[in-house]
């Protein structure tokens, strides 16, 4: 479902190419607008992801669709010796590199340009893998998840943080109103790319969540799949492992 939603509907380019262009364009404004759009609640969600990963005492972590590196930076709290942030947008990575350098975390975090559907790592490489607000941008969701399973170590932890739709009718109405009308309007006013935040809203609305994503993860081969709804269901944290 999510694979049919592209940022630029009048373009013949692949979803992957369009997403790369979009994030390159909005990279310098992304952090600030993200805080405004989420009312800062995304910080709380990321902290929960860090706590789940920290419980596994990972030596190394791969943060896919790392963007400007917010989650990668937060993951240093796990005391992992190595954290790799991977993204297809060099514009986003460059913003992240500056943040990492300012915090003197260069010896722990490295930012790598790469494709989530063709990961440049050997099998069974990472104790923990995370993706925050990135899986819905995969051009081929099942291929991306299969790659993650491949490079995750046995008994390692995989954590997804992604938007979802509340099941409560009242909350769902409020969510739909905000995502369909308010979020795109904020994007049009403040963003260099007026299409970007409309795409982010549309892609979130059609992306599988809850049991639907759980079932996809299980079919790929993940085990111990669980979902944890956040803030009335507007986001969900998924955890999974590898046999």
Please characterize this protein's 3D structure:
The chain has about 240 residues and is an alpha/beta fold. It is built from 8 helices and 7 strands; from the N terminus they run ααβαβαββαβαααββ. It has helices at about 15-40, 40-55, 70-75, 90-100, 140-150, 170-190, 195-205, 210-220, and strands spanning about 60-65, 80-85, 110-115, 125-130, 150-165, 225-230, 235-240. It has a 7-stranded mixed β-sheet, sandwiched between helices. Strand 4, helix 5 and strand 5 form a beta-alpha-beta unit. Helix 1 (about 15-40) packs across helix 4. The longest helix is centred in the N-terminal third of the chain and has 24 residues, at about 15-40. It is globular and about 45 Å long. The model has no long low-confidence stretch (mean pLDDT about 90).
Short description:
The chain starts with 14 loop residues before the first helix and ends with a strand. The protein has eight helices and seven strands, in the order H-H-E-H-E-H-E-E-H-E-H-H-H-E-E. Helices cover 45% and strands 21% of the residues.
Order of helices and strands: HHEHEHEEHEHHHEE
Question: In what order do the strands lie side by side in the largest sheet?
Answer: 3-2-1-4-5-7-6
Termini separation (Å)? Answer: 28 Å
Low-pLDDT runs: none
Beta-strand residue percentage: 15-25%
Structural class: alpha/beta
Share of helix, binned: 40-55%
The largest pleated sheet is described as:
7 strands, mixed
**So what's the overall shape?**
globular
Q: What Rg do the Cα atoms give? A: 17 Å
Strand segment tally = 7
| Mean pLDDT figure | 92
What is the count of helical runs? Answer: 8
